[in-house]
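User: Continuing from earlier, I have the next pair ready.

Assistant: Great, send them over.

User: Here they are, in order.

Assistant: Folding the first of the pair now:
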Amino acid sequence: MIIKSLQIPGLMYFFGFGVSLVAAFALTLTLIQIFSKLRILARPLNKLMIAMGKPVIPFGGIPVILSFLFVLWFFYFSGWINQENLLLFQKFTLGVILMTVLGIYDDIYHCAPRIKFLCQIIIAIILFLAGFQIDRIGDVIDLGSFSILLTVFWIVGITNSINLVDGIDGLASGLILLSCVTLSFIYLERNMVEASFLAVILTGSIFGFLIFNFPPAKIILGDTGSLPLGLLISLITLL
């Protein structure tokens, strides 16, 4: 994926991180208060050992995703981000929305594993056709027609790896945070400013949520969060 570079002063990294953190914190706190009043709780022992069997609030991924998308589009429309990246951000947003819808459906209706896996593959294929592709390995091996297979495997694999560990307080969100911080520095070192910036605002968003996800967790990511966040990490690595 070839992207236009960003021209953002270092201060804007901190601003992007700070805004995404505060937004995620405020939205998560609001969600906890609303759900607590409505008594909408996840069933004990739902899926994995969620919070050691105690009821907790689901759909924690919603404030994280909203925070990320808000900061992303805020920076775009404010002019800080190269305007030629509009199509790229639209693709990011499309993928996130599709995977979030799948996650919400699974959290509410407990989608059959085969159906969920098939939907993930379809979303991955859509994103491959949109331009998120692994075309070659290094500078030597051209994947050719195998590109779609490896790309779909990469996207679905990372997405599910995050989804599978979302059963212990703070584990999935902590891994996402660590991944985002690592990607931020790797891309910054390579002067891939835009990819680094995306990782930075995702870091702020997940950190604002993680505050409430430490043991004993008040809220969990659920599939609503783990699926699109895993997808985001996979897409950022393909930039």
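And the other member of the pair:
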Amino acid sequence: MQKYLLGFFTLLALWSCTPGGITESTSAERDIYFFDIAGFFDAQIKQLKADQLKANKTVKYNAKRDVLQNQSLDYEKELAVFVHSDINKLSWREKYQADTLSTAGKIQSITYKALDDQLKTQKIAITFANNQIERIAIQNHLKSIMASTWQELEYRPRKGYQVHGKQTMRLSGEDEMGIEVEFVQ
């Protein structure tokens, strides 16, 4: 099982890596064209650390499964994959279509869809309830000559998150992986 977990976390780490790692930046330091995913998750990470929130975590790799109860997690590492799905880059400004649904002057949802299938982050859907974020769902896709990787992310503030992925390698077949985390109050 440890061999599979090591492989899974290696894939997850490679997927979410960007040069320099996570940096703390405010919207004043960078241009914000879309919902600020990186800023939102930086704030969530700080809050989770301050609250010292523990979690029940299930890790799946193909048919293998490992369950960890009442764990202290490194939320900066755990949520890096969400932070690195931010689409606020000047060169991507015209590469996403935004759709906002409002009812009675209140935003219900915001959806961003990539207009270019070569972009890693293909879709971001943010759902609101009572002017608060209820759910963020992200779909990422990477494709190369050697591999194709799909990733679905879901985050629910104060409740937990899920990361599900599938990687198809030309030489070694298909692997499925997943992490489900439920915050313990």
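Worth noting for the second one:
The chain has four helices and nine strands. Residues 2-16 form the longest helix (15 residues).
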